[in-house]
Structure to design on (522 residues):
C-alpha cells in the first residue's frame, strides 16, 4: 500500500461554484465521497482550507524569523483542500481522484508520499 | 549462421528487461543488469561462441547480476521480500517461462501509462523495450543526450515512486489504455517514415523498430483489430519505401515505380486488412490501413479505386472528425469529382495553417486548376513549413514546373 496526497487546486480568482445550490451539492457529494473512502478502507485524512488570502508565510531559514502575509506564491493556482488516501497502486489512486474530482468540482493532483 | 551480439541485442534486450522487471519489480535494476549482461556477452561470446539460446543465457546472467546486487544491498537489513526473491532463485532454469510474453506486454503498458508525459512514453518504450541506447533515442527525437537521459530517469523514478503498476490492463480498461500504446508505436513509425529533422529523407531504423513493436503487439494481442490495423498500415507504408524517393526527392504515390514495392510486405498487409474486414470492428488505424490496401492493390495509379478511398474516409470522418482526415478525404474527392471539388473542401478547413501538407495539397489542386499565382503562393507556404529534405526537393521541383508552366 502506498499513501497518496490528492490535492484540489483552483484558479486564484475563479468563482469555484456557479451558484449557491451547486456549492451545497458539491459539499454533499464530497461528504458522501469521504464516507465511501472510509468504508472502502482508503481513508487516511482529509480537509478543506480557507482561501489563500488567510495564509501567512513563515521563514525560519535565516537568523531572524520573518513572517509575510498572504500565500506562499503568487501562482495562478492555489490549493483548496486535500485528501490523504491509501491505495495499492497509481491506477487505484487515479480512480479515487477521478471520483473525488467529480464530487468536489475541482481538479485534483495525485502525488505519492515517500515511504517509511 | 550464429547471430552476433548486435543482432541478439535488438531481438532480446526488451525481453530480458521485461523478464527482470517482472521478477524484481524494479525497472532501474532490470535495465542496468540487462545492460551488464550484454557487456559480458560482448566479452565472452566471441571466444566461447554464441550460446544456443542467447536470450535464455542473457536472462540468466542478468538475473544473477540482479540477485548479486540485492544480496549486497541487503547484507545490513535483510528484508522479507528479498529473502523471498533469493529463495526463488535457488532453482534457476534458463528455459523461457510462458510469462515472458506477458512480461513484455506488461512493460509496454507501463512505459505507455497515461500518467507519463507522451514524450516520456516514446522514450521509455524505445529504451527499455526497443533496446535503443540513450544517445540513439536522443537522436531520434532531436533532443540533447543529457536531456533525454533526464527524461528517461525522471519517468522511471515516477513509475517507482508513484507505483505505476506493472500489468496489462483488464479488458474493461483496455479500450482506454490501448490507444496510447498504439500511438507510441505509430509515432516511432512516422518519425522514421518522414523525419522532420531536415537531415535524412527516411529513417529505416525507426520504421523497422516500430514494425517490430507492432509485430510484438500482434503476437501478444492477436484478437485486437486495431493492433492488426496498425501493423497492416505500417507494413503497407513500409512496402513502398524503395519507390518513395528518387535521388533524394519524394516521389508522389501516383508516380511511383510500383515494381519497386515490396510484394511480401504488401501481401502480409493485405492479409491483415482482410482479417480486419472479417472481424468487422472498424477503428481508425484499420481504416487508414484499408485506404493503403486500396492503393497497393492497384496495378497502376490509374487503376486506383478512388470511390472506395472516399468511402473509407467517409467512415473515418464519423469516428475521427478532424481537419486532417477531411484534408486527406479531399485529396480522394479531387480524384473522383475533379480538383475544384477537392479544393472547395480544403479551403474551408480551419486550424491547419501551420500544417505543411495542407498547403502542399492546396498547391497541387490549384496547380491542376491552372491557378498559377495562387498555386505558387501555396507552394511557398508549404516550403516555409516543410523540413524533410525529400519533400522539400519535391515541392521545389513542382513549384519550378508551375513557374516555367505551359
Amino acid at each position: 500500500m502506498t499513501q497518496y496526497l490528492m490535492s484540489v487546486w483552483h484558479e486564484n480568482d475563479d468563482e469555484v461554484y456557479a451558484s449557491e445550490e451547486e456549492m451545497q451539492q458539491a459539499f454533499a457529494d464530497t461528504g458522501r465521497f469521504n464516507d465511501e473512502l472510509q468504508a472502502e478502507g482508503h481513508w487516511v485524512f482529509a480537509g478543506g482550507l480557507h482561501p489563500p488570502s488567510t495564509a501567512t508565510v513563515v521563514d525560519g531559514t535565516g537568523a531572524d524569523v520573518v513572517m509575510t502575509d498572504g500565500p506562499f506564491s503568487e501562482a495562478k493556482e492555489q490549493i483548496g483542500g486535500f485528501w490523504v488516501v491509501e491505495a495499492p497502486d497509481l491506477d487505484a489512486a487515479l480512480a479515487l481522484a477521478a471520483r473525488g474530482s467529480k464530487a468536489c468540482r475541482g481538479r485534483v493532483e495525485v502525488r505519492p508520499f515517500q515511504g517509511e | 549462421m550464429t547471430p552476433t551480439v548486435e543482432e541478439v541485442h535488438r531481438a532480446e534486450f526488451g525481453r530480458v528487461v521485461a523478464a527482470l522487471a517482472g521478477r524484481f519489480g524494479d525497472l532501474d535494476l532490470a535495465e542496468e543488469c540487462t545492460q551488464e549482461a550484454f557487456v559480458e556477452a560482448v566479452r565472452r561470446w566471441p571466444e566461447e561462441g554464441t550460446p544456443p539460446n542467447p536470450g535464455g543465457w542473457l536472462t540468466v546472467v542478468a538475473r544473477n547480476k540482479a540477485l548479486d546486487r540485492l544480496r549486497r544491498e541487503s547484507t545490513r537489513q535483510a528484508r522479507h521480500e528479498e529473502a523471498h526473491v533469493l529463495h526463488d532463485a535457488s532453482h534457476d532454469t534458463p528455459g523461457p517461462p510462458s510469462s515472458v510474453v506477458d512480461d513484455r506486454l506488461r512493460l509496454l503498458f507501463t512505459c505507455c501509462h497515461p500518467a507519463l508525459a507522451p514524450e516520456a512514453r516514446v522514450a521509455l518504450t524505445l529504451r527499455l523495450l526497443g533496446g535503443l541506447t540513450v544517445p540513439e533515442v536522443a537522436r531520434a527525437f532531436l533532443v540533447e543526450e543529457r536531456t533525454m537521459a533526464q527524461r528517461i530517469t525522471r519517468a522511471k523514478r515516477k513509475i517507482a515512486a508513484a507505483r505505476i503498476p506493472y500489468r496489462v490492463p483488464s479488458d474493461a480498461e483496455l479500450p482506454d489504455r490501448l490507444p496510447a500504446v498504439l500511438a507510441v508505436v505509430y509515432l516511432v513509425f512516422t518519425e522514421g517514415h518522414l523525419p522532420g529533422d531536415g537531415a535524412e529523407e527516411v529513417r529505416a531504423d525507426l520504421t523497422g523498430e516500430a514494425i517490430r513493436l507492432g509485430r510484438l503487439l500482434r503476437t501478444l494481442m492477436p484478437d485486437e483489430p486495431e493492433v492488426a490495423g496498425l501493423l497492416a498500415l505500417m507494413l503497407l507504408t513500409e512496402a513502398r519505401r524503395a519507390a518513395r524517393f528518387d535521388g533524394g526527392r519524394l516521389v508522389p504515390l501516383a508516380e511511383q515505380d510500383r515494381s519497386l514495392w515490396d510484394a511480401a510486405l504488401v501481401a502480409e498487409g493485405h492479409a491483415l486488412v482482410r482479417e480486419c474486414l472479417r472481424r468487422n470492428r472498424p477503428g481508425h488505424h484499420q481504416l487508414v490501413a484499408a485506404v493503403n490496401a486500396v492503393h497497393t492493390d492497384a496495378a497502376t495509379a490509374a487503376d486506383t479505386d478512388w470511390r472506395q478511398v472516399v468511402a473509407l474516409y467517409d467512415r473515418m470522418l464519423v469516428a475521427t472528425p478532424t481537419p486532417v482526415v477531411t484534408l486527406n478525404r479531399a485529396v480522394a474527392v479531387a480524384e473522383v469529382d475533379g480538383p475544384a471539388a477537392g479544393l472547395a473542401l480544403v479551403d474551408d478547413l480551419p486550424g491547419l495553417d501551420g500544417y505543411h501538407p495542407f498547403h502542399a495539397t492546396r498547391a497541387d489542386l490549384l496547380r491542376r486548376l491552372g491557378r498559377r499565382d495562387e498555386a505558387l503562393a501555396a507552394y511557398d507556404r508549404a516550403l516555409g513549413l516543410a523540413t524533410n529534405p525529400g519533400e522539400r526537393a519535391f515541392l521545389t521541383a513542382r513549384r519550378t514546373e508551375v513557374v516555367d508552366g505551359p
